[in-house]
Amino acid sequence: MTWLKDVIGTEKAIIAMCHLLPLPGDPYFEKDKGMDYVVEMARKDLRALQEGGVDAVMFSNEFSLPYLTDVKTETVAAMARIIGEIKGDIKIPFGVNVLWDAKKSLDLAVATGAQFVREIFTGVYASDFGIWNTNVGETVRHQYRIGGEGVKLLFNIVPEAAKYMAERDIETVAKSTVFNNRPDALCVSGLTAGTETDSQILKRVKDAVPDTVVLANTGVRLANLEQQLSIADGAVVGTTFKYDGKFENHVEQDRVRVFMDKVKAFRER
């Protein structure tokens, strides 16, 4: 049994993404509609996800494009306001992800009571956002300094829109990440949000670290969920739950329900 059962309530857990609209300071923030609109759209998506039957939800500033690796204070403040305003509506376990800043993800988690965060905690990358470095030792020490030692850390080891600067096979990355950092989970992704996670890479990671939770991080959909969940311990799902399966749209409750019905049938088998 993994920590997924204790924290989320089930093995083969589905963590749904609640993608927040552009926030103050982001290039595409809709100033005429303001923060009240962002809050209400987050509430709408949260309700659709919960009523559709997902196991947990993760809030992220997915539309803060182009992303920063040193996120500004106004972004974290806006995310804290949103979660604070809708927290009374949250009925399932939740996590947060401040893209792409591990320390600020932990700050937000401690401030809001989130049970987990997903981030790029380790590695150095050539990315769409420039040279992307990390400092996991400092990040984890920051976690303990702010009282966040109970927050589960989901390490994304196949970063989206980025590549390791040194050639390392994925098994080596998985094994060294687990040995050096004791992650609560490893997340395996495709190139971008909504892009299918390569099932062969997923299997290689799980085989390399069989005692660590491994999550399919992108592109899980009706057509491949059984294949992905037969390898992974769970999945992070966002784009699949949206109208027409398009990244830029809002969540469609019926799509969530159909997906989760199939997941529950798979778990019962």
UniProtKB/TrEMBL annotation:
SUPFAM superfamilies on file = Ribulose-phoshate binding barrel
A family per Pfam: BtpA
Spell out the family assignment given in the record's similarity comment: Belongs to the BtpA family.
Known NCBIfam families for this protein?
Answer: thylakoid_BtpA
Q: What is this protein called?
A: BtpA/SgcQ family protein
Source organism of this protein record: Brevibacillus brevis (Bacillus brevis)
